[in-house]
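the two lines:
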Amino acid sequence: EVQLVESGGGLVQPGGSLRLSCAASGFTFSSYWMSWVRQAPGKGLEWVAVIKPDGSEKYYVDSVKGRSTISRDNANNSLYLQMNSLRADDTAVYYCARGSRGIDYWGQGTLLTVSS
Amino acid sequence: DIVMTQTPLSLSVTPGQPASISCKSSQNLLYRDGKTYLYWYLQKPGQPPQLLIYEVSNRFSGVPDRFSGSGSGTDFTLKISRVEAEDVGVYYCMQSIQLPRTFGQGTKLEIK
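prediction for all of em together
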């Protein structure tokens, strides 16, 4: 069974940093593109970033480009999203998701709140 | 970026009746490999999204056959042949022909 478990969310002040993590199991993690998708409270879905299986290619939505870094540790089946210079509009539930063209499985999400 | 536009934004359906959601993209979603990268998701209350349909018309594993997808190019439709109470939630279409991936605004399905 595919499982994706996010962690690392919390309350952060504007301008702060945070690293989100995703533990994957139930599939060969090193063979899949992996994505982060977020959802602001009461709003729709916004794709954030994606990383190639070997980590050699990374792509971001413009609103986080230059402030965020997606990375992975295939030895430990883990995906990360480092977010810096956080703003109020980064407040959202962040989902780890398997795939790039075909996003098929999603984690339960972790809530990041940016507020003073 | 490709803009995805869903209609209607909300839907109230009597159990057993059909439902239909439209999704239009601002660009053709047919890729050079012959596939059309249009996906449908359902987000039930308090849950993450779950994949229903991939590449326009293919039901994902475990998805009931009352769900069907159709369309081509820029116009797509998700149909539920007979709505059940468990189908409530928000339905999203997503394009994955181009980065950034983009979603429709969502269509909220309620039961009458």
